[in-house]
Each structure stands twice: as structure tokens, then as C-alpha cells.
Amino acid sequence: MMSDKIRVTIWNEFVHEKNKDEVRKLYPNGMHKAIADGLGSKYEIKLASLDMPEHGLTETVLNETDVLIWWGHTAHGKVEDAIVDRVHAKILDGMGLIVLHSGHFSKIFKKLMGTKCDLHWRVSEPAGEKERIWVIEPYHPICKGLPEYFELPNEEMYGERFDIPEPDKTLFISWFEGGEVFRSGLTYSRGMGKIFYFRPGHETFPSFYNKNVLQVIDNAIEWACFSGTRDTMKVSHTKVALEKINTGL
Amino acid sequence: MMSDKIRVTIWNEFVHEKNKDEVRKLYPNGMHKAIADGLGSKYEIKLASLDMPEHGLTETVLNETDVLIWWGHTAHGKVEDAIVDRVHAKILDGMGLIVLHSGHFSKIFKKLMGTKCDLHWRVSEPAGEKERIWVIEPYHPICKGLPEYFELPNEEMYGERFDIPEPDKTLFISWFEGGEVFRSGLTYSRGMGKIFYFRPGHETFPSFYNKNVLQVIDNAIEWACFSGTRDTMKVSHTKVALEKINTGL
Amino acid sequence: MMSDKIRVTIWNEFVHEKNKDEVRKLYPNGMHKAIADGLGSKYEIKLASLDMPEHGLTETVLNETDVLIWWGHTAHGKVEDAIVDRVHAKILDGMGLIVLHSGHFSKIFKKLMGTKCDLHWRVSEPAGEKERIWVIEPYHPICKGLPEYFELPNEEMYGERFDIPEPDKTLFISWFEGGEVFRSGLTYSRGMGKIFYFRPGHETFPSFYNKNVLQVIDNAIEWACFSGTRDTMKVSHTKVALEKINTGL
Amino acid sequence: MMSDKIRVTIWNEFVHEKNKDEVRKLYPNGMHKAIADGLGSKYEIKLASLDMPEHGLTETVLNETDVLIWWGHTAHGKVEDAIVDRVHAKILDGMGLIVLHSGHFSKIFKKLMGTKCDLHWRVSEPAGEKERIWVIEPYHPICKGLPEYFELPNEEMYGERFDIPEPDKTLFISWFEGGEVFRSGLTYSRGMGKIFYFRPGHETFPSFYNKNVLQVIDNAIEWACFSGTRDTMKVSHTKVALEKINTGL
User: Would the N or C end of chain C have less CB density within 10 A of its end CB?
Assistant: First the structure.
């Protein structure tokens, strides 16, 4: 019997949690597990990480995934290109993608954007500073249930210019105590897939326990889940040529 | 006990159906009634027209409307400005709007767009020609259940340039037998409200009985229904000033 | 003999400079004159204000204007609707428009946007706070010659949500000392006209003497000046119908 | 002495002109040479092709190129990845790019777009059919000097859905005799670079001798040439961290 639940796979490189004490204390089973717990039983959730065979992103897993969540940072370069290509193909075919924080520099995000995806950060290990996230387009389904703004008392700063293509919608803009701003909630579509970039959270801060952060991820899963039609593209992508309809011309 | 159904009000100037035989034959109870019948029992539907008190768009009716559908043509000028202002305010507060065909020249659409909303048409009473509507963004929820393209064997031509602001998404582009093209499915947001413009159907053709046209309207109702948060804007629109958060600066 | 210079008309309600000492001291001949002086001899500049006949925006003046700059605040309601309609028509016909600061609430800007154009500000007379303006799209011609960010040590805060339609491009985002962010450089097109909204400067601060602010206005004039073709629209706007091209069908 | 002229490099795979008689007759020195001749002496033009060392796109050539034009079709796979990466880097650093016709499937365009860039075409060798290109945004500088629409009496059909990201602006939409439509003039920005996709012309048709096609390419060169500021990005791309500005917090 099939569940009607949206099927979510949360991918985490899962490295910092193993080799940094402060991160392990905060996320003993990994950030992916913390997100899964925060989302509760609403979705059918799978966890995947770099150290699993095929990084946990086998054909089977992806075929059973409606929305993929991605967190990476220190090990972007260790993600195999063949797996990135597989994920890319699946997104173009309609799988939703939610990219979190340092995932901006992941191979999959850069491949989808076509740009460097660079941004500003502070060189020193982030001591943490206040981030105030303003909701710019409150009518959007990803903003459901949010207040006018919400704060994360300690986060790593990301600053503009964020080197990305023009987003479809800029849902959030962050204000940082140190003097920077950042477009921190961005929607895109690529092929049949819907993509959401969300700026928090750095591995040394408890952002994935924050109820507003979890609310955004929850909303984004529903938004990113395919809800159009694929029939159209089956024809288009097999390149079947049309006959001229007005053959009498 | 409240219904959970989306509440739709279909507004039609309802003039051609009374003073043109060929239109009355096609839509004996008005195009609004034909659309309502085509949508079936999925929504809670009200009908409204120009000849009703306050054009059928009283405060009470609008307060009980999630999505408003608008068809007008020959009587745009007879719609009272006060009613247009009321509808405009309600849209900015989150009511969805679906504008059909010649509604492109309605006061409410022009007020929302800020442009002339002009386009090309043929001077002679349209004899009808083939319209082929191509689906440009099949992943979009308004395109759910549609084929790659669908045809209306007889429609009035509308041609570019359509003098409108850049849409959020161009979902459909029409091909006309006579040599024109038209962006025929367009999404916008204004304030808290979501807006969809859809090009068919002229009053002398049976487009509102076409299953693909009805599918688009059905999808658009679900899409246009408010699904974000209004809390944010309550604060914003009452202009309550924020205190400086870092008063120590 | 005609000059090749772009013809700029700077409109200022010119009220605060007359009835507030601190503003008169800062801008003794009005903000419009300060902007004109700052731009130098590069453009052919006319000044216009509320107290002139037809607010200084006669048919003749507008016919000789390539780009109109607009500053208003306390007297938005005193601008006559007939003049607003005239300016609106001229913009749709290709005149560029640059709206400054509190001009966000002017009749002309709201008419072009179709929304409330509301935003956050502090209730108390602004004491001034630091504004840091980040350049988000440096490749854009309006950003020519700007540093990565620039600061105005004292400005009035404007905060999101700014209730506007999705801009074509968001060129600047402001960071405010007090905890807010604002999309402070926005491009739009309406009809044949190009529109740029730029957030500074409040009448009690010397922002219109700031070299970066003047650089932005200078760049925006060049950008907003009509550079396409109007021939197309002459046909389109006179609604001349096309003949079917394939009459044999 | 340096010229003030914009420096244009026209790249053509230059294969069909050598191995197909009908193409050689039409473009005896290659389509790149025909375009160069059509543009006249306004620009400083270099020609480059697949068979040259490094495909004619050496570091030196690219460093002396403001705008690169790209035509490819049968030999996309033969363009070396290292050269594609070099061109990609140069575009992100501000070189303009104009992609023509079948260049939609080139490695460089797909890398910039992040999608498949697929579209419809007819399976049989194109016999040619009428293309009518409608100007959708006449105010745009790329549309300068164009009529309301222009026709190419014989072209290869390209049909939607064109699998690309949402463009910044859709300038042209093509109508094809056979029943298809196509977004045939599209602007993008990626990094510091401006990109224009233009749909004509197939190698077996004389589209690159058409004055309107040449006018569009001419306009697009001026538009795509870098006109913003790179200073910003120098800082951003070297990832120099900013200090917190309010260190007293």
C-alpha cells in the first residue's frame, strides 16, 4: 500500500558532526536527523549522507524521492560527479530541491545556477552574530505561518553580492548585526523541478531546532513537490517532431 | 458549519447574452453560469453581474470570496469606480483574481497593471480562426493535467504586443492561424493577491465548454487562493513603526 | 539648433524647503536644484515644482523631457489628477521616470505599480541612522562607477515589506543600523517607459550632495532614456487590425 | 593606439559550409564571415572556428573580446571542455555572449542555463517554412529600429517548450507556418556577463543576410557589452571578509 505522504530525502555530508566536538554536541545524530525530527511524521523521510554507498543517492532512492534537501560544506569536492549528474537529471525531471546554507557552493547548486554562487563571509571562524530575517513576499506559500520577521540570535554571516541568476522570487532578506544584507530565501525552476535556496544554518549553531526555520523547510517541501504535468515533457524530451498542421499551405 | 471549499465568485457583465441571439443560444444563462456548471461541485460558487445592486460585488460578497473570476467586454465603462476600488483593495488584501479574455481592458485589470493593456485584434467581427495554445511551463500547478498543447477550433485572435508589465510567469503562448502570437496565460502578484490572466474565450464561441479551458480555470482557482500569511501585512499596513533594535548604538 | 543632450526635468514638491528651517539651510534652492547642480552640464535640465502653473509639467515641458525625476512627500495629495494622468501617458509613451525616496507614495508611482507602495518607517521624526547600500547587480549600467557598497551616515530608515510588484531587477539592498533592510534600487518597465526607484534621500539629510547618490542618478538618467523603437507601438496603439496573412486557409 | 570600438569575436563551428554544397553556396566563407560583413566597420571583429588551435578562443583572443557570438550545430561534442570552461569564466567576468539558433544545444549555453535547453523541431531535413518574428518589448535597446514584426520566408522551425530558465526579458516570439510558437529573443545575466539568445538562422537559409536579423545582432552587441562596474566583484570574488562594522555590539 502506498502512502500519500510526500517523500523527502535529506542529504547531509555529515562530516562536521563527526570531527568537531561542538557540532556533535549540538547535532549528535547529524543535522539531517535534527531536521527530520523537527518535521515530525508529516512526510515520509529518508536520510542520506556522503559516507553511504553512492552517497545514499541511488537510482532507487531518487526514484522514491519527491523533494531532496541538501546540506554540504567541507566536502563538496568529495561528491562524485556521476551522482551529481544523476541528481541533476532527476531535478530536471521534476524532483524538488531545497538547498540549505553552505550548500550554495555544492556541485549540484552551481550546476543548476550556471554561476559561481560566491558570496561574502567572515574569514575567522564565525563567532556568531544576530541574523534578522525579513519576510518580503508574505503571500507566498513558503511564508505561511511566519511572522513579519524572525531572528536567529547567533548565525554565520553571509553577505551580498550573492553571485546567482535572478531568482523567480526573493522571499526573505537577512539583516546582519555586522553590517551586511543577504537574499536568504530564493525560488527557481529548472526543467520540471522547483528549487528553493534557504540561507540558515551553520553547523555550530542550533538553527535547525528553530521553529521558524523548520516552518520554512516544511512549507518549502510542500511547495517544491511536483504539482504540474509531466506528459508535456515526455513528448518534448523525446524530440518527436510534429507534423506541420496546415499541410495545405 | 463552515464549508472547507474555496469560495469562488464569477463576475460577468452579462450583456451580450441578452442582446445578441447567437450568444444567448450558446450561453443561455450567461458565460458565468456555464463556467460554474463546468467546475461542478468542487467549489462554493456565487454568480454576480453588472445589473445587480453594486454589480453583485457587495462588501459581504467580497468578504466571502477567495477567488474572483472576471469577464467583461462591452460594458467596462459602466462598472462603477467605487466598486473597482473595493475589488482592488480586496485583491491587495489577498483575494485571488482570474481575468478572462476581453477582461484585459477592464478597469480592475488596468488598475492592477498600471499600463494600457492594449493588444491587436481584427477590426471585423471575428469570424473565428484556429487557436493553438502551447504549454510553456508544464511544471506549474496551473498546467496540471494539460497536454503539450490544446486547440480551440474557433476563437477571436488577440495579438502581441500585449501592453502589460513583465509577468511573473508566462504559462501559455497562443498560435493563431492568421499569423499572430499571444502570451495567453500570465501570473502576477499584487499586494497579497495572486492574479492570473487567461486569454480565451470570446462570447460567440463555445470555449467555456472546452475541457482544457475549464481545467485551466479549475487549476487557477486553486493556485490563486491565498496560501501565505497575512499577519505580516497587518503590521506593515498599519504603519506601526519599529523601535530601533540596537538602542545602544 | 537642437542639443544632443538628454533632456531631464527634475520635479520637486518644494514645500519642506520653504517651511522648515533645517531643510532650507540644507537645500536653500530646493532639492531639485541641488540635484541639477550635482549633475553638472552633462544634461539639459529643467526644474519644476508644485507651485508652478500645471505644477510645471505642461504638455510642452513633458514633450521636451526624456527623463523625469520625481521627489514628493507632504503634498502628494495636492498634485492634480489631470497632471498625473498626463505624466502617466507620457511615461507609457517612452519618457523615463526616476522616483526618489518618499516619492514611493506619489500618485504617479502608485498608478504605475498598481499596489499600495507602503513600507515601514519610524514614527518619530527621523533622528537619522546609518544606511549602508549594497550593490547587488554590479554589471548593470545603473551601477557603473560604484563601490561594493556605500554609506550614508544619516538617513531616514525605510523597511520591508515594500508593497510593490516584483521588480525587473533589484540593484541595491540597504542595511539600516536599527535592524531593517530595504530594496533600495529597483527597475521596472511600463508601456514604453523605463522606471527606476531609488530610496535616498530624506529632506533633512544631505544625501543629494553625496557623490555616490549623484552617480546613481546620473547613471539612471542614461539608462531610463528611451533607446528602443516606438514605431511598433504606433501601430499597436492605434489598434489597426492586421489582415489574416494566410487568406487561403 | 587603442580603438574605441567594441571588440567582437564571431565563433562558428564552420563545418556545414565545408561539407554541404547548398550551405557553401549560401555562405562560401562561413556564416561568421557573412555576419561580420553584414555588421560592417562599426566593430572590431575577429573570426574564430572549431578547426583553429584552441578553437580560436585562446586566452589572448578572449581577453581582447567584449562580446562573443556563437553558432554551432553538428559539432557541439567536439568543442573541448577546457575551452568551454575558459569561455564560461570569461562570461562570468563580464564578456557578453550572443548565442544563435542551434547554439541552444552548445556546451557553453547549457552550462550557463543549467537545463537541457531542448526544444521541438521537425525530424525531416527542414524544407523551410515562414517564420514571423513579433517584437514583444519594443522599448528594449535590442529592438531599436525594428518594425512591429518581421518575416523570414524560409527558416527551420523551433517549437516550445524551450527548456530554459525564466529569461530576464522575452523580446521576440516567433510564429511558424506549421503551427508552433517560440520565444526567439531572450536576455539573461550570469555573473557579470550579459547573454542574448536569438533563434534564427539555419545554415541552409540566407537569414544572416536579412537586414532585420543583422539589426538585432548589431543592437545585441551594444547591449551585451559590459557597462557596469567590475570593482565590486573583484572584492567579492577574492572572498576578502569584511570586518564587523559595529564592533561595539
Answer: N
What is the value of ipTM here, to two decimals?
Answer: 0.93
Q: Burial level of B176, CB count in 10 A (0-12/13-18/19+)?
A: buried
Residues of chain C that touch chain A, judged by Cβ-Cβ distance less than 8 Å: 132, 134-138, 148, 159-161, 166, 169-170, 173-176, 179-181, 183, 246, 248-249
Which residues are paired to B159 by β-bridges? B120
What is d(CA C21, CA C178) in angstroms, rounded to the nearest whole number? 27
d(CA C26, CA C128): 15
CA pair distance D99, C12, nearest whole angstrom: 45
What CA–CA distance (Å, rounded) separates B182 from D174? 10
What is the residue type of D166?
E
Contact B72, B101 (CB under 8 A): no
* Number of helices (H), then strands (E), in chain D: 8, 9
For residue D114, give the nearest of A190, A241, A242 by CB distance.
A190
Instruction: For residue D202, give how far its alpha carbon lies from the nearest alpha carbon of chain A (Å).
Output: 17
pLDDT tens readout for residues C93-138: 999 999 999 999 999 999 999 999 999 888 766 678 999 999 999 9
Cα–Cα distance for residue pair C41/C39, rounded to 1 Å: 7
Q: Measure the CA–CA gap between B82 and B111, rounded to whole angstroms.
A: 13
Contacts 24+ apart (CB under 8 A), B50-56: B50/B12, B50/B13, B50/B14, B50/B15, B50/B75, B50/B78, B50/B79, B51/B14, B54/B83, B55/B11, B55/B79, B55/B80, B55/B83, B56/B9, B56/B11
Q: Are A172 and A185 within 8 A, CB to CB?
A: yes
pLDDT digits (tens, 9 = 90+) for D216-246: 999 999 999 999 988 655 544 333 344 444 4
Residue A238 CB coordination number (10 Å): 8
Domains detected in chain B = 7-115+183-237 (3.40.50.880)
- Nearest-neighbour CA in chain C from D143: distance (Å): 5
Residue D248 above 90 pLDDT?
A: no
Name every chain A residue with its beta carbon within 8 A of the beta carbon of D178: 242-246
C-alpha cell read off for B142: 496551473
Q: Model confidence at C1, in pLDDT bands (50, 70, 90)?
A: very low
Is the Cβ pair C136, A161 closer than 8 Å? yes
**Helical pair A31-39 and A211-224, crossing angle rounded to 10 deg:** 80
DSSP string, A39-100: HTTSSEEEEEETTSGGGG--HHHHHT-SEEEEE-STTGGGS-HHHHHHHHHHHHTT-EEEEE
Q: Please report residues of C whose CB lies closer than 8 A to that of A174.
A: 181
In Å, how far are A187, B28, B73, C135 from A208, measured between CA atoms? 20, 58, 53, 30
The pLDDT assigned to A232 comes to 58
What are the pLDDT digits (tens) for D81-98?
999 999 999 999 999 999
Contacts of D245 in chain A (CB under 8 A): 178-179
pLDDT by residue (tens digit) across C10-19? Answer: 999 999 999 9
